[in-house]
Amino acid sequence: MGPHLNLIGLDLEELTSALAALGFEKYRAAQIWSQIYCLGARDFMDMTTLSKPAREKLAQHFSIARPGVSAHQKSEDGTQKWLVRMDDGNEVECVHIPEEDRGALCVSSQVGCAMMCKFCHTGTQKLVRNLTASEIVGQIMLARDVLHEWPGKAEGEEPKKHGKPGRNEDDPPVRSLSNIVMMGMGEPLNNYDNVAKALRIAMDEAGIGIGKRRITLSTSGVVPMIKRCGEELGVNLAISLHAVTDELRDVLVPVNRKYPIKELLQACRDYPAASNTRRITFEYVMLKGVNDSLADAKQLVKLLRGIHAKINLIPYNPWPGSPFECSDWEAIQAFGDFVNAAGYASPVRMPRGRDIMAACGQLKSASVRER
Ligand code: SAH
Ligand code: SF4
To answer: What pLDDT score was predicted for residue 80?
Structure first.
């Protein structure tokens, strides 16, 4: 164990043994876990349930540092985007999308992406590396810092009137980061172990406490991992479908050549967390003249028969040099109406944060974008 091991991203067992190595008793781990993930402590010195020498010892050996922030933008519509900088200088984006009484954080799982989907800005950037669990949880931590969304109460402790780290008396109620969507940069199922570890930490009720029903993982269709995700994590599933024939999907979402539509939809039928109340979301980006005809809508309905599904129509968000155009509004509406009449909810996902390039598929590290 080197100096300044970052405790963020360790599971409770790992935290316990890291602490034990310094002579801390076992019960301290839960206490420190709670300080980190309930209170959002950013400094060991704030952990006042511990003696001063104990705090000093922690600070000598560990850190609770969040990733860096290279840039922070706020859109006209309230969407915020952070360009998150890892210790090695690599960058990913993280986006907070507020809604009336809730809000989602769109979290990245990889630097770049290997899947090369044709319409995706991230896909034009090669995979650089997987994010660690610490870097994935770190995105949630830094968003909660900025949003002042730490409940301000650690296990076994009354909320303090003064000096709650990160939280003031007049802050809004804790709710603007109520959901997590693994829809940032990268294919989360290509980095399953780290994503799973990070999500387990986020779901822990004695900590961040965002439950599996409020977490959605989006995948381009890494079929073998879908099953594991369902069994082990039970989070909501979103599938980037985007095409209703293998011929077209092979081109738009190249992983389809390995796992064609039929296998993908079987994995959805088998997905344990899917039910009437917990439907699978199918994301469908509307590309003018490519996948947006009524015949496509008809085929879509046919394909999804028997699956508890919701279809998210995503107006295509263009990026510099991209080969596609967004479908006309009438085409999107006609497509949506057809799917809707067949019994599937088909909301059009209104682009958020377009003015700061934070909308779906626009994410790309600025360092790469500038080249
Ligand atoms: N890699 C995962 C999750 C991140 S992408 C996945 O592909 O599912 C989040 C959603 O945005 C995906 O459905 C993706 O296909 C879609 N998307 C990508 N580029 C887009 C663009 N330019 N316009 C609109 N949606 C896009
Ligand atoms: Fe990767 Fe998703 Fe973009 Fe495809 S759409 S290239 S899987 S980030």
So the answer is: 95
